């Protein structure tokens, strides 16, 4: 039998050629940073507004002692930034969804009228005669109508109008217009650049190293509905996609952010409806019932700001009707039905709903 190197060599070369061809045809996955670490990132304006909101809420809560008078004018001065807070002219008022502003000013007036009277404090919370807690309507109301809407809304930083902008001209410290808008959306999430490995809850954490508002509530709900890593990964992937001008990947990241942030809002609505149900009818926990009902109501108002929200307009209307207009007229049966409607709209399991 004759031994030949020709045939084995031919097949070896052919196989090698095939492997090289396959490798060349498959695009390499883009290299991504582990944290939100990019050139020319600036979301200082979002940090300033977040801290102004924190100041506003702290001012409102002074009235919970039943002694301190908190004039509406003081709250308006913070909201409209009359005094160059944090050394900036930026303000909360001009970034709030127009449809929410009237109610915000009404809540300021409520605080001014109710504060300083211990009869208006129930269980440590300043409330209206109907049990509505204006502090929660202001705090969670602005989390939705400002922070959330500005980030994910159709008119917000991840909306088409602010995404389909220049991505060529670089401004030192801010990047391109598209990069900057993306960074501003990230800023409203209110988390450290290495979140959630750094969950922003360390004692003394401040500024960009602290989990604020939505970042904080994502930590609080994480034991049951944890969207933190998926949202953070999407923010990183989207910014990297913009850097390499991959708009398809950018849009995928936008969809992921919207879907997960929507889930986070709904998880908080579910949590506070559950807590309201828990304290409903307990005369020893009236203040906590009013408090949790108000929080659930205000969180629910954020749901429509997301154009990709799972809940339909019809379901949203039903949800608001079931929650009711104030905690005194809300019924236990309606609150239970509201929880069920939310579960069906968002696909929460029975176990998740029980633990929210």
From TrEMBL:
Native organism: Cesiribacter andamanensis AMV16
PROSITE patterns (UniProt xref): PROKAR_LIPOPROTEIN
Protein name per the record: DUF4856 domain-containing protein
Highest taxon above the source species: Bacteria
InterPro entries xrefs: DUF4856
Pfam family, one: DUF4856
């Amino acid at each position: 039998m004759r031994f030949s190197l020709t045939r084995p060599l031919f097949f070896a070369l052919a196989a090698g050629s095939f492997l090289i061809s396959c490798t060349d045809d498959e695009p390499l996955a883009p290299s991504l940073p582990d944290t939100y670490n990019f050139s020319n990132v600036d979301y200082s304006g979002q940090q300033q507004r977040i801290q102004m909101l924190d100041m506003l809420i702290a001012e409102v809560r002074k009235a919970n002692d039943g002694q301190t008078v908190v004039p509406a004018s003081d709250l308006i001065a913070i909201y409209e930034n009359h005094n160059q807070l944090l050394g900036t002219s930026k303000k909360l008022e001009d970034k709030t969804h127009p449809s929410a502003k009237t109610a915000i000013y009404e809540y300021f007036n409520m605080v001014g009228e109710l504060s300083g009277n211990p009869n208006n404090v129930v269980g440590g919370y300043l409330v209206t005669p109907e049990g509505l807690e204006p502090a929660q309507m202001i705090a969670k109301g602005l989390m939705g109508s400002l922070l959330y809407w500005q980030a994910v809304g159709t008119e917000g930083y991840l909306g088409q109008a602010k995404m389909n902008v220049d991505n060529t001209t670089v401004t030192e410290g801010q990047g391109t217009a598209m990069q900057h808008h993306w960074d501003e959306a990230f800023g409203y999430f209110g988390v450290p650049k290495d979140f959630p490995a750094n969950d922003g809850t360390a004692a003394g954490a401040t500024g960009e190293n602290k989990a604020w508002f939505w970042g904080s509530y994502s930590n609080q709900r994480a034991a049951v509905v944890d969207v933190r890593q998926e949202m953070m990964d999407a923010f990183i992937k989207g910014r990297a996609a913009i850097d390499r001008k991959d708009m398809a990947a950018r849009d995928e990241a936008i969809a992921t952010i919207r879907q997960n942030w929507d889930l986070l809002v709904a998880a908080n609505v579910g949590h506070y409806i559950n807590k309201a149900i828990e304290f409903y009818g307990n005369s020893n926990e009236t203040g906590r019932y009013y408090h949790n009902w108000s929080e659930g109501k205000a969180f629910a108002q954020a749901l429509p700001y997301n154009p990709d929200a799972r809940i339909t307009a019809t379901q949203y209307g039903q949800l608001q009707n079931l929650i009711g207009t104030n905690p005194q007229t809300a019924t236990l049966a309606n609150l239970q039905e509201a929880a069920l409607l939310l579960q069906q709209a968002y696909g929460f399991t029975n176990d998740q709903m029980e633990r929210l």
